[in-house]
Amino acid sequence: MKILSWPTSARLFARAQKVLPGGVDSPVRAFKAVGGDPLFVKAARGARLEDVDGHTYIDYVMSWGPLIHGHAPRGLVKVIGDTARLGTSYGAPTESEVTLGEKVRSLMPSIERVRFVNSGTEAAMSAVRLARAATGRDRIIKFEGCYHGHADQFLVKAGSGATTLGVPTSPGVPRKTAQHTLIATYNDLSSCERLCDSHRHQIAALVVEPLAGNMGVVLPSDGFLAGLRDLCDRYGMLLIFDEVISGFRVAAGGAQHVWKVKPDLTCLGKIIGGGLPVGAYGGRADLMEYISPAGPVYQAGTLSGNPLAMAAGLWSLNALSKDLYKRLSRLGAMLALGLTEAARDAGVPLQVNAYGSLLTPFFTSSPVRDYRSALQSNCMQYAAFFRGMLTRGVYLPPSQFEAWFLSAAHTEADVRKTVRAAKAAMKEAGAVA
Ligand code: KE4
After folding, report:
1. Own/partner long-range contacts of 379-382 (Cβ < 8 Å, ≥24 apart)
2. Three-state DSSP class for 209?
3. pLDDT per position as a tens digit, 283-313
4. In what order do the strands lie in the sheet with 358-362?
5. pLDDT at residue 162 above 80?
6. Given CA atoms 317, 322, 328, 329 in this order, what sign does their dihedral have?
7. Exactly one of 57, 60, 147, 382 is catalytic; which is it?
């Protein structure tokens, strides 16, 4: 195995830290959870990433999910170029946002009206503001281990008792704000019911990743999502599905199609922008009509519905196909099996949670079905595995608690190469206590 060195990335990282907090524009990129300096990327194409030191990698971060068609597919690059030549932003209505809205509604019929924004964070925070306005209630329920962006109301963890009010996870989040957020346990309906019961008529909405990706991949247990729908109906709360990861990823119709549970509102991001900054929230027309200027709930954005992002999103959604999902599922299953066998041969405890083109290998011997069980994972072993894979030309999410993403550009040969690298890297991980 050749020993890689990253002198240019190291120089850039030193320079970056003098102008960007932590040297990055989003924390997970800084490699804090796996050690060492982050790689600086020079270019990417298909399933390959090239760093500034000339090393190339098979990429399983894929910009954290937007790139279901791979890096810079020709058709996408062309449509962005053609659109840019007509102008980059107008701050005025365009046909493209109407067309993309109609496309989203055709794929996810629960979304009768949709508003485009610029990130998943904006989508989730706006959906909660709408739910509070529509119900006249202030509290929300979220789940430990689920992430809905960095708006204050989501940077909250469970208070001391099971039904007590949330407390901030970040400085700068007012305690009063955090108290409106209640924390339940993923895949545990009774934890939700206890909160609903002890805060009757106070909870506006329950926000959930229908397939969780932010504690690593955790699938909903049988009946969990249907149970949430029933709880929301019984307690007069709105059900908000945060499909920023799962939307158009687990199926063209998202997790709501796969698990056949209809939310009142849905948050979208990532794939909907094809790699350009787009988020969206939408759902029942009677709810969305509260949104300004149709109704009184204010929400706005200079670059919302930006023609470049709309064109990229439309290209990405139009390029989805049944064959694509079949191929992604086959590749995902092949990778999950290869990792499982590599860990078994190395004597390393591993649980691989996978669905379609999403997966997370948890370095633990017990099944992972919620945040607490995810936290049992051996993060030192994941870090050793990450570095072993990096030096063998495979670029993984630099954290145990993230999802791996496959794309249309990944091939069976890529997966075989990844599994070969994993056989060696698992042994290195196994050497870590
Ligand atoms: P953005 O504001 O980052 O566009 O979206 C926030 C968000 C909302 N909902 C879900 C389910 C999400 O996964 C995200 C963002 N995902 C992370 C990856 N776990 C983005 C990567 C990062 O923060 O750098």
Report:
1. 379/33, 380/432, 380/433, 381/348, 381/429, 381/430, 381/432, 382/34, 382/429
2. coil
3. 999 999 999 999 999 999 999 999 999 999 9
4. 351-355, 358-362, 404-405
5. no
6. positive
7. 147
3-state secondary structure of 237: coil
- The angle subtended at Cα 198 by Cα 234 and Cα 194, nearest 5°, is 70
Torsions phi, psi of 430, nearest 5? -65, -20
Q: What's the 120 CA to ligand 1 centre distance in angstroms?
A: 6
| pLDDT tens track for 4-36 | 889 999 999 999 999 999 999 999 999 999 999
Domain 74-318 has CATH 3.40.640.10: yes
Q: For the CA atoms of the chain, what is the radius of gyration?
A: 21
Q: What does DSSP say about strands 265-268 and 279-283: parallel, antiparallel, or unpaired?
A: antiparallel
Pair 342, 419: CB distance under 8 Å: yes
Provide CATH code, domain 7-72+321-430: 3.90.1150.10
The verdict on whether 270 is a catalytic residue reads yes
C-alpha neighbours within 13 Å on the C-beta side of residue 348: 32
Q: How many CB atoms lie within 10 A of CB 108?
A: 26
Per-residue DSSP letters for 238-302? Answer: EEEEE-TTTBTTTBTTHHHHHTT---SEEEE-GGGGBTBS-EEEEE-HHHHTTBTTTSSB----T
Q: Which of 57, 235, 264, 270 is catalytic?
A: 270
Which tens digits make up the pLDDT trace of 66-121? 999 999 999 999 999 999 999 999 999 999 999 999 999 999 999 999 999 999 99
Domain extents in the chain = 7-72+321-430, 74-318
Residues across the chain:
433
CB within 6 Å of ligand 1 — which residues?
26, 28, 64, 119-121, 124, 147-149, 209, 213-214, 242, 244-245, 269, 279, 402
The answer to whether 147 is a known catalytic residue is yes
DSSP track, 53-119 = TS-EEEESSGGGTT-TT-BS-HHHHHHHHHHHTT-S--SS--HHHHHHHHHHHHH-TT-SEEEEESS
| Dist CA 421 CA 394 (whole Å) | 8
Tell me how far apart the alpha carbons of residues 363 and 422 are, in angstroms, rounded to a whole number. Answer: 13
